[in-house]
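ingest -> validate -> predict -> emit
validate: passed (alphabet ok, no gaps, 422 aa)
predict: started
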Amino acid sequence: MTEDLHNLFFYPNTCHVCKSSGNETPLKKCSNCKMISYCGKEHQKQHWLQHKNVCRVLAEMLDETDKSNLLEGYQNASADDWIKAKTNLMLMVSIKLDRRLLPYEEEMFKFPRACAVCHETNLKLLTDCSSCPCASFCEKHKNDSNHDKICQMLSLCYDLDIATTVFIRHPPRNVVPYHTETAYLPGSIRNFIDLYMNEDKSLNVPSDIQIPHISEYLTRPLTLLYALERLEHPIGSTLTIHVIGANMIEVDGIEIWEILLHWIPTLTVLNIVLIGPELDSNSEKLECDICDCCNEKNMKLYLEMNGVLYKEYVVSECFVKPDIIVGYNLGIHECENIDSPNDSWSESIRSLPEQKCPFVLTSYTAEEAQKEHKRICDILQNNVTYLCCETNQFSSLRPHRDYENEGVYYQNQYVIIYRDFN
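emit:
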């Protein structure tokens, strides 16, 4: 595993460098920060240049307290208090370092070694799960039945993160046939993968790892296709899609959107406009590579990125009217006060009815979906109705660890489809 790759993620019960679990090799916590483990001195030395600044800050913070662990004292705290403790510690370290934390550094605080039930942090009192590298338990909670329900999925999270060493920039190969005209999407993303996506034998990775990885690329275009089917939305030769709140996740594997050119009989030009402040500001329209058959038919797939809020994009010179708008896992409801200066969504949401086109919104959970809908109604001061709010059969199959509930979540697991905002 390369240095850059092992710095992408963190698991509390593994050596940070080689990812061997404590069940395989005895691990030792860093004696200064008490947050990260290694299988031996050699790997600790190997990682020291990357870890030393964070380690110094954490050690200084420990010296200012009489605690053996900076998350000590939250045993049996409420879920909200535990989340706040982890988040506040992460923010304090980021401020002291005067930089954003790397992904694995954030995960050190999101997924610390602590009892998965009561948050006990005394290492001497903890026993690691024998089946996954994510969970530990105190003596009282070592037979926790709730963990049994997600243990296998947490193991899959680990296996998929390890597999990134193989999968980096390997979008799945598209073998969707052209224009079946009367065909509807299969009933689920898994059925779609079984029918249309080729397993890459060259990767030497089992199908139970490849399929969740493939689904992470497919979930966005297939969710959009599903919404178009539900809406019975007429599509001409050109389709322009606004993806709001977009980030680099949407950019990765953008070529897989070519599926829409294969699937929709009337479509010859697909314009994907990504809008979000986390993107590069470049608004230049790029022509994406497509297959030889699409080229022969003179089809086009265009990508445009705009690193601004949607409210800014709709009044800009580069604005192009959409045929449909989609937002993937936006978290509109997360700012509790819509009049707060920290609320970046209200004005953008108010611009949606002006576009006079359908809007598709996804979320991680059913509860979040309902909160998103309520927030939209509050912002628009209108009890708008949706065509459907349901479990998305085209959500990703790849689990991600959830630091808030100690479980897992899936990209686009729930979908809300609005025909309009009347």
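The chain has a mean pLDDT of 90.
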